């Protein structure tokens, strides 16, 4: 099937809620994708920070082939070996004390589960989250997403439980946090909001405020987790351990899985019937996630993201172009803020024309979120092309 046939079928039978580019891919290998005409692209989007080990990794493919031949899905009313093994494996890389996992289908669902856990633990009614943040598009996670452009027309589905603080501003948090607050949601880096960072003092201050007020600190690691920042988790960059951590995207390497992770003590309130999911944590997705964690550790992809990402940020900052307002990020989540939305769009189009896939978020920010396998040589190839257009 050629591109026009795919596009026509999409136009006739699919919802039109996505703004799609005029391109479709047939397969991938390593850090590259190939379109319907056979053209090769260096992928610096990774399915929006999802394909952490790239495409068609031999070890992952073999794990999937083996699992599919045995068991793909079975209900959570039974014990599931692959789920138990993933829980143990995940606990080996999460911060100290965070060892109990609930597996779900996405980041939004993980954040919904985290908020339910916090409300049930505390018996309180208020949720704090940051302006410009993003926590998902389901009802509760949409309420926690402090951007009106996502909430408009869906207000009837959003409760009055949410209050919003300014990311990076500890005084803003102090004014809102109180004894009615059940949870404070926070991203280590605001990904969808334009790769916005905050200093370590802010995160440590938030941790102290939550502890003093009996508020559950929920770290949304959906985009920053599983090695993307050059640490296993974004909060590791600041030496902060949250009460609850959510993750998804890079955990499954391309299959739909999310997780809520917390302590033994806090997990006890979620008794049978309080939360559930038909597909969450099925044998296939859990085997995939375990293979991803094993590959990341064996190939030191966290270290690779740290090393190559640090070099990349330095090189981008050194360009000194008037068209670039700022470069920020950590590891393999990097934001290049341009002077305007038009500049960002033009750069993206030029890069795609030269076989480089990049993502534009928040209007004028080029977000670089490649597979964690991206090499220094591939980073150099990107820079060689990027310099010509900046």
Please tell me about this protein's structure:
Strand 14 and strand 15 form a beta hairpin. Helix 3 runs antiparallel to helix 11 and helix 4 packs parallel to helix 11. The model has no long low-confidence stretch (mean pLDDT 97). This protein is 39% helix and 18% strand. The protein is of the alpha/beta class and 390 residues long. The chain is globular. The strands form three sheets. The protein has a seven-stranded mixed β-sheet with strand order 4-10-9-8-7-5-6, with helices on both faces. The protein folds into two domains: 144 residues, Aspartate Aminotransferase, domain 1, CATH 3.90.1150; 228 residues, Type I PLP-dependent aspartate aminotransferase-like (Major domain) (Aspartate Aminotransferase, domain 2). It contains 14 helices and 15 strands.
Question: Got a strand count?
Answer: 15
Can you tell me the residue ranges where pLDDT is under 50 for at least 5 consecutive residues?
A: none
Number of domains: 2
CATH superfamily of the largest domain: Type I PLP-dependent aspartate aminotransferase-like (Major domain)
CATH architecture of the largest domain: 3-Layer(aba) Sandwich
Helicity range of the residues?
Answer: 25-40%
How does the major sheet shape up?
7 strands, mixed
Order of helices and strands: HEEEHHHEHEHHEHEHEEEHHHEEHEEEH
Fill in the CATH topology of the largest domain.
Answer: Aspartate Aminotransferase, domain 2
Query: C-alpha Rg, in Å?
Result: 21 Å
Number of helices: 14
* Global structural class: alpha/beta
Basic shape: globular
* Order of neighbouring strands in the sheet with most strands: 4-10-9-8-7-5-6
Strand content: 15-25%
Write down the overall mean pLDDT.
Answer: 97
